[in-house]
Amino acid sequence: MNKEKYKRIIKESFWDYNFSVNELISICEGNDYNNKKFIFNKILKNSTDVLNDLTVFSDSDKIKLLKDFSPSKFNYDFINRRFKILKRLILKEEVDIWELSWTK
To answer: Does residue 2 contact residue 20 with C-beta atoms inside 8 Å?
Structure first.
């Protein structure tokens, strides 16, 4: 994996934690689903390149994490829009994103 990508993920999404690149890689490739869920949530909420950054997970993990995600009330509009876009791009689900529709 590209260690520079992990460094950027840590800088953008984990600025308030003390993760090393190896720790992040270990979590993303490991078997602890709760830790993966934590990483996924932080990336979804903070990353400037969410789709690319989520490639740190396997396709099956990414799909499961996305299906299990529920936007929190904090910053709901922003997070929910990101969530819907990811559902469209990763899960190929039809979603209604008012801001991105052709007709309003």
So the answer is: no
Nearest to 24 by CA among 45, 10, 4: 10
Position 63 confidence tier, pLDDT thresholds 50, 70, 90: very high
Strand, coil or helix: what is 75? coil
| pLDDT above 80: residue 10 | yes
- CB neighbour class for 41 (10 Å; exposed up to 12, middle 13-18, buried from 19): middle
Whose tokens are 């929190």? That residue is: 72
CA distance 27 to 103: 42
CA–CA gap between residue 15 and residue 22 (Å, rounded): 16
In the numeric block, which tokens belong to residue 14? 């984990």
